[in-house]
Amino acid sequence: MTGFARLFKFYVPPGQQQAYDAYLRDVVTPIDAAAHASGVFESLITITPRRPGDWNHGRLFTFANEAQREAFAGRMAGAAMGFDGSEAARDARKAHAETLRTLIGSEDYDFTDPHGLK
After folding, report:
1. Mind listing the pLDDT tens digit for each residue in 54-93?
2. How many Å apart are CA 71 and CA 16, to the nearest integer?
């Protein structure tokens, strides 16, 4: 069985972890829940590297197929707009997020699950 994933890597500066955790809980989690319920992605795993380097927080999304992964950005933006309610609110949310963490990058991965455990 082949799987598909996208990993977003973030750097949360010292002293911002508590505020970032609150942002994840109060803002990101409801957006993720709405997106997941509408089939934007299959699962989400939060990753914290054991030896942080240029990133110290990751969000790994898995997808049923490549098409779902390719549609992710647009469909996630739609879920976020449903939460935000307006472009002004979206812009304010994004600006606030930028004060809490820095996106280091994202990468797509294909993986094999030979035992069908996915």
Report:
1. 999 999 999 999 999 999 999 999 999 999 999 999 999 9
2. 31
How far is it, in rounded angstroms, from Cα 49 to Cα 56? 6
For residue 52, the model assigns a pLDDT of 79
d(CA 30, CA 24): 9
Q: Are 56 and 49 in contact (CB under 8 A)?
A: yes
- Domains defined for the chain, CATH in brackets: 2-49+56-110 (3.30.70.100)
Which residues, 6 or more positions from 18, have their beta carbon under 8 angstroms from its beta carbon? Answer: none
Instruction: Dig out the tokens for 62 from the structure.
Output: 């898995």
C-alpha count within 13 angstroms, C-beta hemisphere, residue 108: 13
Asked if residue 111 lies in contact with residue 3, where contact means CB atoms within 8 angstroms, the answer is yes
DSSP letters of 38-55? TTS-SEEEEE--SS-SS-
Tokens 């957006």 sit on residue = 31
Cβ-based neighbour number of residue 94 at 10 Å = 11
